[in-house]
Automatic annotation (TrEMBL):
Gene3D superfamilies: Spore Coat Polysaccharide Biosynthesis Protein SpsA, Chain A. The keyword Protease does not apply. This is Galactosyl transferase GMA12/MNN10 family-domain-containing protein. One of its GO terms (molecular function) is glycosyltransferase activity. The keyword Isomerase does not apply. Belongs to the glycosyltransferase 34 family. The chain crosses the membrane at residues 12-29. GO terms for cellular component: Golgi membrane. GO terms for biological process: protein N-linked glycosylation. It comes from the Eukaryota. Keywords: Glycosyltransferase, Membrane, Transferase, Transmembrane, Transmembrane helix.
Length: 361
């Protein structure tokens, strides 16, 4: 969505809000008497996973954005997802998103585990839901690997794109958002205003920088280990000036980088979705998601398990000569998992490389 760009220093209230969140975060991370956080038990039914949607729209009325949010609302009602919409400016421009997400995360974490939602799906207001037959659960990691995955997003030519993303309700996510919010404080030498363009917001740049930082992170590990990139067109297909890059059955359309042409494209899509919704809707079982998402997470599971076995075997090797190839293969596979999991061919190749090294060890 379009918001006014302002510098971080222009509103001292932001620092106050940030400090408030830091205090709230202490509750999440430091209580000595509280039991350690545990994920909710595996539900018996596929669609019983608890997912909510969130977005924001405030300021000057914009009927097209309202209609776009309504498309997400219809999808949420169809599948029983709670939907949160920020209607007031609570910070400076783009910083509203991470502050709002952090507040939602803290609210959920303050509830008993059985009452929390498990994932929040963020959608920018310039996205339109075009296939309401697709459940959000399809894109989430299976329970046996979800403890290690906390951010499910996509990337484009600018890197991380936060217009559409899934965030795990977990202390990892709160800490990640807090660090992104605090980036201008602990990295004052980095001018985020001059690091972005019209297609790349300041908060997105801050999140990307935190994600790429190899130091710190949750439990002393880098945040990259908790992120996973889906093939972008699955959940974040773009409308270009000349055409839509997705196909019938895709869940939504996003309108970045179109400038004033955005309004014509959005209006045309909204007319289609509202007047003839079935023209783009397709039963979930007939979409590429039905088998594609299962295959994706199966590959991720296999890669993680292969790394675990390799690291166990690595510790038992007696020679440096034998360890070096395996260490390199593990490192390369981890790099793909963290940065390029959406590249199927590359992931398969790196996985095979590691298996080949293990066969020789």
């Amino acid at each position: 969505m379009i918001v006014m760009r302002q510098t971080y220093q222009r509103r001292p209230l932001f620092v106050i809000l940030l400090c408030s969140f830091l205090i709230c975060t202490l509750w999440v991370f430091t209580g000595q008497e509280r039991p350690a956080w545990r994920p909710v038990a595996d539900p018996e039914r596929y669609h019983s996973r608890r997912v909510a949607k969130a977005t924001m729209l405030y300021g000057k009325p914009n009927p097209l954005y309202e209609r776009a949010i309504d498309s997400h609302g219809r999808h949420a009602r169809r599948w029983g997802y709670p939907m949160h919409v920020l209607r007031q400016d609570i910070s400076v421009g783009f910083w509203n998103k991470p502050i709002y997400l952090a507040s939602l995360m803290i609210q959920e974490m303050a509830k008993p585990p059985a009452e929390r939602v498990e994932w929040l799906m963020w959608v920018d207001a310039d996205t339109i839901l075009i296939n309401a037959a697709v459940p959000l659960e399809a894109f989430l990691p299976p329970y046996d690997i979800s403890e290690d995955v906390h951010l499910v997003a996509t990337r484009d030519h600018n890197g991380l794109n936060t217009g559409i993303m899934f965030l795990h309700v977990h202390p990892w996510t709160i800490k990640f958002l807090i660090e992104a919010l605090g980036h201008p404080l602990y990295k004052p030498d980095v001018d985020l205003d001059h690091s972005v363009d019209l297609d790349h917001s300041i908060d997105q740049e801050a999140m990307a920088r935190v994600l790429s930082n190899s130091n710190g992170g949750f439990n002393g590990t880098s945040y990259a280990e908790g992120a996973m990139f889906l093939p972008r067109t699955w959940i974040n297909a773009y409308e270009w000036r000349h055409a839509y890059e997705g196909t019938r059955g895709n869940i939504l359309v996003h309108f970045p980088g179109l400038g004033d042409q955005r309004w014509v494209h959005m209006s045309n899509w909204l007319d289609v979705v509202e007047l003839s919704p079935h023209s783009w809707e397709m039963p979930f079982e007939e979409t590429e998601y039905y088998n594609g998402t299962v295959a994706f997470w199966d590959r991720i599971r296999e890669a993680k398990e292969t790394i675990r076995i390799a690291e166990h075997r690595f510790n038992r090797l007696s020679t440096v000569k034998g360890k070096a190839p395996m260490e390199a293969a593990v490192r390369e596979l981890k790099k793909v998992l963290q940065q390029e999991a959406d590249d199927t061919e590359l992931l398969i190749q790196r996985l095979q490389d590691l298996k080949s090294v293990m066969d020789l060890s």
